[in-house]
Amino acid sequence: MSRIGRMPVTVPNGVQVTIEGNTVRVKGPKGELWRTFPREMQIRLEDGQVLVERPSDEPAVRALHGMTRALINNMILGANQGINKTLQIEGVGYRAEMKGKDLVLNVGYSHPVVVNPPAGISFAVDEKTKTITISGFDKEAVGQMAADIRKVRPPEPYKGKGLRYSNERVRRKAGKAGRVG
């Protein structure tokens, strides 16, 4: 049995979970999310906990078990607390600023790069520590937005310049060895 899949997901106070067949709706203080899961998974709400069970031990069904539980947990966490991702800006002259709700990046191109937030996503920039915080209630959308912003200027291996996740370690390469002798 999946170690992650068999753990119950506790529903905190202030969050409503409704299960209609295999569609799970989560409504909380930060927002409302819903998702339809595969028919093989049996999802039920019992004593303030969401339980996910699988009918058989087939490999395809086993793979869905832990994923279904993790997705439900992410929905409940996002609707209750919200999700944040932080990007770090490295490089001389590289900076980010807010223009209304839009994020404007100056990262070494001849033009500034403007990033518009989709619905449910917001940006915050700390110019002192050169960090960008992406916030929202949908973990999938926040992670995709962070990846899209990082893709504007990924960190390069020689000087480490670019946009990176706050917990990312960039492997550095040695430059040219130069002539000897």
Defining traits:
181 residues; alpha+beta; Outer Surface Protein A, domain 3; 2 domains; three-stranded antiparallel β-sheet; 2 helices; 35% strand
What does this structure look like?
The chain is an alpha+beta fold and 181 residues long. It folds into two domains: 9-80, Outer Surface Protein A, domain 3 (Alpha-Beta Complex), CATH 3.90.930.12; 83-165, Outer Surface Protein A, domain 3 (Alpha-Beta Complex), CATH 3.90.930. 20% of the residues lie in helices and 35% in strands. The protein contains two helices and 13 strands; from the N terminus they run ββββββαββββββαβ. It has helices at residues 59-80, 139-152; strands at 9-10, 16-20, 23-27, 32-36, 42-46, 49-53, 83-90, 95-99, 102-106, 113-115, 121-126, 131-136, 162-165. The strands form four sheets. A four-stranded antiparallel beta sheet has the order 11-12-7-13, covered by helices on one side. Strands 1-6-5 form a three-stranded antiparallel beta sheet. The chain has a three-stranded antiparallel beta sheet with strand order 2-3-4, covered by helices on one side. A hairpin with a 6-residue loop joins strand 9 and strand 10 (113-115). The longest helix is centred in the middle third of the chain and has 22 residues, at 59-80. The chain is elongated, with a radius of gyration of 21 Å. The termini are far apart.
Quick description:
The chain is of the alpha+beta class.
Q: What is the CATH architecture assignment of the largest domain?
A: Alpha-Beta Complex
Helix content: 10-25%
CATH superfamily of the largest domain: Ribosomal protein L6
Helices and strands, in order, run as EEEEEEHEEEEEEHE
Count of discrete alpha- or pi-helical segments spanning 4 or more residues: 2
Order of strands across the main sheet: 11-12-7-13
Under CATH, the topology of the largest domain is which? Outer Surface Protein A, domain 3
Quick check: average pLDDT? 92
CATH class categorisation of the largest domain: Alpha Beta
Number of strands: 13
The total tally of domains equals 2
Distance between the termini: 64 Å
Poorly predicted regions: none
